[in-house]
Specification:
This protein is an alpha+beta fold. It is about 30% helix and about 25% strand. The relative contact order is 0.16.
Length: about 170
């Protein structure tokens, strides 16, 4: 095995610990989608335990279907109410959205220090504008930030998106 000539920014443990929040967001999000009456299925695969994992094309987590209309969705678990996403992931999501001609929703779930859900919001690419941040995060990643006023993740707001905004995003 080849030795690296640099120190990785994230250890394996730190990399995998990021998934704890993701898993909690996914659990709560799927429960809410069922309550809201949305059909969904897995889209991306979980690669956290692969022996060699290289950064590359991020794939959204799920495909939602509502009255024949579909959208891609990715779960994001956070400890702070800052709607920040890795820029590499957003670029990949934009490619998936364009390739499949489907809107892409990023669902943010915020948990306090006791892992209690305290907020949930969503942003839709090409509908909710974001800014590329000039400073890099602690792990050296470039990120983008969505505005503070993105919609609350609930059935009414998601249905409103499907009824009012969906057709503007489909070519």
């Amino acid at each position: 095995m080849k030795n690296l000539d640099f120190q990785p920014e994230k250890t394996t443990r730190k990399f995998r610990s990021n998934y704890k929040l993701h898993d909690m967001a996914e659990f709560h999000g799927k429960n809410l989608l069922v309550q809201f009456g949305f059909d969904f299925q897995a889209f991306g695969e979980d690669r956290r335990y692969e022996k060699v994992w290289e950064k590359g094309e991020d794939k959204p987590d799920a495909l939602i279907n509502f009255n024949g209309k579909k959208l891609l969705l990715d779960w994001k678990g956070k400890h702070k109410s800052k709607w920040i996403v890795n820029e590499r992931a957003v670029r990949s999501y934009e490619k998936w959205s364009a390739e499949l001609n489907l809107p892409l929703m990023i669902a943010f779930f915020v948990f306090n220090s006791e892992n209690k859900l305290i907020d949930r919001r969503f942003a839709v690419l090409n509908l909710h504008q974001y800014n590329v941040r000039t400073q890099r995060e602690w792990d050296k990643n470039k990120t983008v930030v969505f505005p503070d006023d993105i919609p609350f993740f609930n059935g009414a707001n998601i249905m409103k998106f499907f009824k009012e905004d969906y057709s503007r995003l489909i070519r």
